Amino acid sequence: MKGDFDGIIDMTGTGSVKWELTQKVFGEESLTPMWVADMDFRGPQAVIDALKRRAELGVYGYTFRPAHLNEAVAGWMERRHGWRVDQEWICFSPGVVTALNACVQVYTEPGDRVIIQPPVYPPFFKSVQDHGREPVMNPLKLVDGKYEMDFEDLAAKAETSRAKMLLLCNPHNPVGRVWTRGELEKLAAICERFGLIVVADEIHADLALNPHRHTPLLVAAPQLAGRTIVCMAPSKTFNMAGLAMSFVLIPDPEQRKAFQTFMEKAHLTAINPFSLTAADAAYRHGDEWLDRVLAYIKGNAEYLRDFLTRRIPRLSMVMPEGTYMAWIDCRPLGLAPDELKAFMVSKAKVALNEGKGFGEEGAGFMRMNLAAPRSVLEEALAKIEAAVNAL
Ligand SMILES: Cc1ncc(COP(=O)(O)O)c(C=O)c1O
């Protein structure tokens, strides 16, 4: 019997970036799209029902963020992550990337240095560079097939660069690490020692794969509350990125005021009624759906790992502890980054994200989105296998 995540949903005419822009972006037809980080799954039924009820009202006027939404957010954080959030901390942003860009502008000055940990989600680089700040690289280390933070390098760079800020990705996209409490404690000690402001992008928090558990930075290191801004969202978790809603949790009142003033001046505070309805329903009723989708994604990750081992042994993957991304090591193919990209598109006919887009350290890797029906994954792998065999 087919499970609820096995069906293919026809996205024709919806404006879906993943399904309708693939040809334009990759320049080829008939690619299996496994790039943009959203899911090919229907979200929780409770969200669909709540949106239908809201749509039926037929009135979609200006909307503010009511107290019940903050309650739903705080309830979720405590229930899923054991993190007690004061509802006053919660600010709104249409997206986490918007929030990252805002934080860089609010808490640093042009010319300031900001530490990032590549390979990492490309907007981390852009949000620093686009505003005349300078990124300082603290690359992750790949040790025995697992990525680790390089704390020695971090401390040295924090000291010599006199950086003002660190952008943390927890859990980490694209390498799929769910940072442990111990790792976060070490990181926090360095941030305290060198007075770094920390922007913790925890958008993948809800996507830790069993047995891994997400640790919010401020649970591991509550002493950082005066210097930490946490970005969270229901968008990755419940497949609602198009609804444009995220939350920025800022415990320090002055930092919070500065963020809100920036967002108000940019007129970025208006929320849309559908995102409010969807987020509220998801955070109240989405637990069971999320547990099922995470089990399905983990099954896909295991399927991919086993397929590569048995059928395409020249490729291997870093097993994700969280997120629905697989980080595939294609270096043994011996292709330069541009050749690897062209190979996946023109020969294998799959649309993946090229590793180099996540920083130099990603050269030779490809990122595959696993939030897809198993049959889509099977199709992509069969095509990659045939292309590798023909190399
Ligand atoms: C680490 C990280 N932050 C932010 C985003 C995007 O956030 P938003 O769509 O809310 O701007 C993504 C999407 O892939 C991501 O992986």
Task: List the SSEs and their pairings.
Elements (H helix, E strand, L loop, with lengths): L16 H4 L1 H5 L5 E2 L11 H13 L9 H15 L8 E4 L2 H12 L5 E4 L6 H7 L4 E4 L3 E3 L2 E3 L2 H11 L3 E5 L11 H13 L3 E5 L15 H4 L7 E5 L13 E4 L3 H13 L7 H13 L1 H25 L4 E3 L6 E5 L7 H12 L1 E2 L1 E2 L10 E5 L4 H16 L2
Parallel strand pairs: 1-13, 3-4, 3-7, 7-8, 8-9
Antiparallel strand pairs: 2-10, 5-6, 9-10, 11-12, 12-15, 14-15
Helix pairs in contact: 3-11, 4-11, 5-6, 5-10, 7-8, 12-14, 13-14
Pyridoxal-5'-phosphate binds next to helix 5.
Report a brief summary of the structure.
This protein has 391 residues and is of the alpha/beta class. Helices cover 42% and strands 14% of the residues.
Topology as a string of helices (H) and strands (E)? HHEHHEHEHEEEHEHEHEEHHHEEHEEEH
- Determine the number of helices (DSSP H or I, runs of at least 4 residues): 14
Number of domains: 2
CATH class of the largest domain: Alpha Beta
Superfamily (CATH H level) name of the largest domain? Type I PLP-dependent aspartate aminotransferase-like (Major domain)
Let me know the largest β-sheet.
Answer: 7 strands, mixed
Quaternary state reads single chain
Gross morphology: globular
> Which consecutive residue ranges, at least 5 long each, have pLDDT under 50?
none
* Mean pLDDT across residues: 97
Cα separation of the termini = 37 Å
Query: Helix content range of the residues, please?
Result: 40-55%
